[in-house]
């Protein structure tokens, strides 16, 4: 029997059919397992979040379940590949040994990858950032869309998605961890009564805190820090309001709008930068010319 006839003999065809069937069963089981595991993790996430009232705990639960799903999918894929190799009569022991040796070599050649994975592990373990937080990483700021073992994914205000390896993160500023503050600095004219202005700010803030649309977002009454500094054309009154995470910008914008309306109603001046120019040692004729030009402009108006 020739090699070609032996290759396509009934026995060989039967063996191929058996291997193809077993591989098909493995692939089908892998797909079904992926679907089932995904559904179970999503169900677990819903049950976990349902029993939690704290938004911070919900964020952490969402982040951890996403990592669980990624690890589960990777484990299922590894098991499926190993079983397919065993069906094909390929000895996996040399492969595993080579993988161990290759892993050592890879560790030296891909130190940045290992650094990203280790940093990502501690990043998740220490609960520094959760999905949904607003953070600043270096010059990049945005909402955390996803946290993976190797990278952090941020979506900025313009809609750009920034993918940052964990190993490149030296520091993170989390602006929405547990609570937030809406800071304000209101400038009023020097002629205004500062204590009266502070009372007006407190009244407007109390009204905002009682508003059903905003009262759940505000955790504490306004804190007036006092007269912060003397500007070129205004005195600056500083303060802050403690809010729920991510709500500080919404509360701050509404407070600014109401303060502007109230200041307008009470005639409290919000000045803009001005300069006073004094003329000294100018010829009298030139000053008279400037005065006549000003009077002519006033007549036209």
Radius of gyration: 34 Å
How many structurally independent domains? 3
Topology order in helix (H) and strand (E) letters: HHHHHEEEEEEHEEHH
The total strand number stands at 8
Let me know the average pLDDT. Answer: 78
Order of strands, widest sheet: 4-3-2-1-5
The 3D shape can be described as: elongated
Helix content: 40-55%
Distance between the amino and carboxyl termini: 114 Å
Q: Which features characterize this protein?
A:
alpha+beta, SH3 type barrels, 3 domains, 8 helices, 55% helix, 17% strand, elongated
Description:
This protein has 301 residues and is an alpha+beta fold. It has 3 domains: 3-90; 130-174, SH3 type barrels (Roll); 180-266, 2-Layer Sandwich (Alpha-Beta Plaits), CATH 3.30.70.100. Helix content is 55%, strand content 17%. The chain contains 8 helices and 8 strands. The chain has helices spanning 3-7, 10-50, 55-87, 92-109, 111-125, 194-210, 248-266, 284-300, and strands at 134-137, 140-147, 151-155, 161-165, 173-174, 180-188, 223-230, 235-243. The strands form 2 sheets. The protein has a 5-stranded antiparallel β-sheet. It has a 3-stranded antiparallel β-sheet with strand order 6-8-7. Helix 2 runs antiparallel to helix 3 (55-87) and helix 6 (194-210) packs across helix 7. The radius of gyration is 34 Å and the shape is elongated. The relative contact order is 0.07. The model has no long low-confidence stretch (mean pLDDT 78).
């Amino acid at each position: 029997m020739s090699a070609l006839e032996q290759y396509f003999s009934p026995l060989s065809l039967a063996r191929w059919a058996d291997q193809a069937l077993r591989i098909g069963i493995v692939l089908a089981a892998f797909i079904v397992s992926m679907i089932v595991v995904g559904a179970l993790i999503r169900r677990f996430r819903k049950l976990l979040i349902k029993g939690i009232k704290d938004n911070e705990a919900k964020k952490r639960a969402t982040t951890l379940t996403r990592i669980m799903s990624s690890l589960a999918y990777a484990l299922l894929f590894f098991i499926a590949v190993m079983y397919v190799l065993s069906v094909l009569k390929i000895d996996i022991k040399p492969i595993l040994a080579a993988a161990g040796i290759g892993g050592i070599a890879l560790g030296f050649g891909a130190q940045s990858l290992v650094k990203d994975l280790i940093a990502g592990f501690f990043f998740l373990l220490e609960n520094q950032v959760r999905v949904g937080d607003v953070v600043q990483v270096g010059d990049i700021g945005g909402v955390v869309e996803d946290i993976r073992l190797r990278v952090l994914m941020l979506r900025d205000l313009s809609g750009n998605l920034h993918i940052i390896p964990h190993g490149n993160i030296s520091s993170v500023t989390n602006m929405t961890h547990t609570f937030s503050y809406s800071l304000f600095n209101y400038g009023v004219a020097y002629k205004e009564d500062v204590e009266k202005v502070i009372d007006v700010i407190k009244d407007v803030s109390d009204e905002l805190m009682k508003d059903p649309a905003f009262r759940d977002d505000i955790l504490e009454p306004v804190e007036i820090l006092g007269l912060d500094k003397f500007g070129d054309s205004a005195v600056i009154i500083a303060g802050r309001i403690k809010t729920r995470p991510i709500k500080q910008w919404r509360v701050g914008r509404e407070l600014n709008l109401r303060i502007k309306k109230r200041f307008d109603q009470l005639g409290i001046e919000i000045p803009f930068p001005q300069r006073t120019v004094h003329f000294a040692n100018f010829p009298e004729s030139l000053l008279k010319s400037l005065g006549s030009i000003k009077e002519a402009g006033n007549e036209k108006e």
